[in-house]
Amino acid sequence: MNKDPSDFMLEEYSQTNLGFFHLQDKINDWFKAFIALYGIPSTVLAAVIGLGDAIDSLDLFALPAIVAFLLAVIALLGLFVAMMIVSMRMEMILYKRAVNDVRRYFAEIDTGKSGILGILRISDFLILPTSDLYPPFYEPWRDTFWQVLFIGFLDSLTLYVAIASLVSLDLVVLTIPAALYWALHWFGYWATARRRETQWHALHPANLQSANY
């Protein structure tokens, strides 16, 4: 049975919005998993050295090998979690651009009607974007940006302590790999967003951006 194209667009709008919020919940779950991940080393450390006076004399740069190894593994897993969050955010932006295009569809097919204020169109009442270029895949100073930097900072600090406990190197020298590891988190986010933006423009060469950004 043939239906009006608007029926399809409304269903697309509804399902895409559902997918968007589902991904947001997934990102929150991954971030909670990341926080829980950092509870493992402290549990193992307590089991290895015991509680009480041993904690007072604990040297963070001379941890038991098993704890240092776990810290290194967790630092690597943290990068994986950050990239999973970035990947899901990229899908959310894809969904949001699809929603924007649905709004643009209705704004452009509406021919307007006469009213007290003259010619009124749907586009006159659309506050949210109708542009397929918004939001950008790379969002500096927004939520995902700060999440990636926060995860990167904890991961780099954890890797710093792990390497210091496993290898006899000057602590100042160890700041170099730690800083590079932190930068790797940001670069992974930036590179992924840049690739997605390039793919988008390759598949959608026409600029569909309308007046309300």
With helices defined by DSSP (H or I, 4 residues minimum), what is the helix count? 6
Strand adjacency order, main sheet: 1-2
Largest sheet: 2 strands, antiparallel
Give the overall pLDDT as a whole number.
80
Low-confidence stretches: none
In whole angstroms, the N-to-C terminal distance is 36 Å
In one word, what is the shape?
elongated
Provide the domain count: 1
SSE string, helices as H and strands as E: HHHHEEHH
What's the layout of helices and strands?
Blueprint: H1 5-37, H2 39-49, H3 53-56, H4 65-109, E1 113-115, E2 118-120, H5 143-166, H6 171-203
Antiparallel strand pairs: 1-2
What does this structure look like?
The protein has 213 residues and is an all-alpha fold. A two-stranded antiparallel ribbon has the order 1-2. The protein contains six helices and two strands, in the order ααααββαα.
Key traits:
213 residues, two-stranded antiparallel sheet, mainly alpha, single chain
Write a concise synopsis of the structure shown.
The chain has 213 residues and is an all-alpha fold.
